[in-house]
Predict the structure.
Amino acid sequence: MSFFRRWRRERLLAKPFPREWFSLLNGVPIFPFLPPEDQQELLGHIKIFLAEKKFEGAAGFPVDDRARVIVAGNASLLLLHRETDYFPFMRTVVIYPTLYVARYVRAQPGGIVEEGVEVRAGESWPLGTVVLAWDAVAEAGFGQGARNVVVHEFAHQLDLEDGAMQGVPVLPPELVRPWQEIFFKEWREAAYRPTPLRLSQGNPAEFFAMAVELFFADPVSLSQYHPDLYGLLSRYFRQDPAALLF
Ligand SMILES: [Zn+2]
């Protein structure tokens, strides 16, 4: 990391969190459950995230501090307790007001090109952009049955940091083997047993993003259905969100 960037981050961390932003944190549903030291760390990450990332509204969505703080706060949960460079490949967050319709063109085997439209709540693009639908962002919760689309999309960003989106983020050396043994075993087996991780595409990248989303939104369900996967994510994120609910 450049000296200048580190210096700028340290200066931001030393500044107080803007008072008018505190009330916006109710859009980060896990926040009141976090221990005070984690809350402090998260506030620091939010300041840096907002200083370094660009936001754009699409289809007339007015991006204000509320939207910015809520997206940054939920995304920064993935950064707590870890050496991190703040999603280094992600530069811009695009927010639509509502579930948006995207045109797609997909190459199929045999040279056929499939074209159509589909409704999406959010998506992660490899080229530095995360796209979100505000109504989905605003539904984020913490507890049984809760979802968190911001966490989901930024999990895809972590997955991309090693250059490929295949369910493996950049790992500390001690987790490389456990990841191969636990994550991929759970992914393969999930097709054959009851799981809240519905496998829409049978794809390990999607399995990873859904697991991370549940880890931060409905951690008790994840720990009940997939205790080994929960334990693995707990080691990776150095957090135990299920314990916050007891
Ligand atoms: Zn996804």
